[in-house]
Every structure is written in structure tokens, then in C-alpha cells.
Amino acid sequence: MDSATNGKTLPEFEDPINMPIVSWSDEYDVNIDKIDKQHRHLLQLVNDLHSAVEARIDKDELKHMLVGLVEFTRTHFSTEEQLMEQHDYPGKSSHLREHRMLLRHLSDLVAAVSQGKYPTFYSDYDVSTDWALLHIEEYDKPLGIYLNHKKNQ
Ligand SMILES: [Fe+2]
Ligand SMILES: [Fe+2]
After folding, report:
1. How far is CA 81 from the centre of its chain?
2. Could you read off the pLDDT of 68-121 as tens digits, one per residue?
3. Which ligand is nearest to the CA of 139?
4. Does the structure show a pLDDT above 90 at 22?
5. Ligand 2 centroid, distance to 5 Cα (angstroms)
């Protein structure tokens, strides 16, 4: 028996209320202090947003939180991009492309909320904590390895 479902039949569609908030784990560390601190904060902002959506907060408040997330994400991406530039990171162009794509996705979400739509975050706009964690795993970790390798040369 699957312990996660306790033997009960899952509903056909997942209820966003029951989706877990992700806590930071050391396995997400890329071992660059500034980046790791920003990642922790980013995850906190995403989690706060999820809680806010689940609590069905006011649309204007939600938009305000989303704009805050977009601003911090921009700051964070530019931190990484400066490091890539300074250290001639060979994976820079694909990493930058991914940053642009994620920012576009977040901007679409702000636009949707501005138009009066209310996201579930797990279906309507496909935004979940995963985007942050997947990006860290696939793009930021290799950057961390590269930067640490250069530092130790
Ligand atoms: Fe990144
Ligand atoms: Fe990052």
C-alpha cells in the first residue's frame, strides 16, 4: 500500500490546497555563498506565494507579492549573470536563455493576475516551486561547480 495516500483513492485532479510547500534542503546548495543565500530567499518567496494563493488572498495583494518575486528573481539572475560574465562561464548563453524564459513566465503570471485571473499555481499557469528547484539543479549547480573549480585553481 502506498503510505502517501494511505490506501485512499486519489481525486482525479490534485487539490492545490494539499500541495506541499518545499523547505530548503542542503542538497540545493550550489556552494557559492551569495547564490545560496539568494536561493533560500527565493524559495521562501515562492512558498509565501503558494500559501497566499491557498488562502485566496486578495488579487491586488497577490499581484503585489508576485511583483516582489519578479523583482527579487531579476536581482538574483543578474547576480549569477555577473559571475558568469566575470569568470567566462562556458554555459552562459543557455543559462541566460533559461533565465529569460523564467522571467517571461513570471511576467505572464503577473499579466494574468492583472487581468483578473486567479492562478491555482499547479495547473492554470504551471508555476510551482519546481521551476526554482529544477533550475537550481540543472543550471545553477553546474555554475557553482565551475566557479568553485576556478577559485581553487
Ligand atoms: Fe540561474
Ligand atoms: Fe539561481
Report:
1. 17
2. 999 999 999 999 999 999 999 999 999 999 999 999 888 888 888 888 887 766
3. 1
4. no
5. 33
End-to-end CA gap in the chain = 51
- 55 Cα–ligand 1 center, Å: 30
- Half-sphere CA count of 53, side-chain side, radius 13 A: 28
Domains, the chain = 32-151 (1.20.120.50)
Assess contact for 113 and 121: CB atoms under 8 A.
no
Is residue 151 packed enough to be buried (19+ CB in 10 Å), middle (13-18) or exposed (0-12)? Answer: exposed
Rounded to the nearest whole angstrom, what is the distance from the C-alpha of residue 65 to the centroid of ligand 2? 19
Calpha distance 60→2 (Å, rounded):
40
Ligand lying closest to the C-alpha of residue 32? 2
Q: Which ligand is nearest to the CA of 133?
A: 2
Task: Give the torsion sign (CA, 24, 67, 109, 104).
Answer: negative
The predicted pLDDT at position 136 comes to 94
**Which CA distances in Å does 45 have to 39, 87, 89, 92, 109?**
10, 29, 28, 26, 15
Cβ pair 84, 92 in contact under 8 A: yes
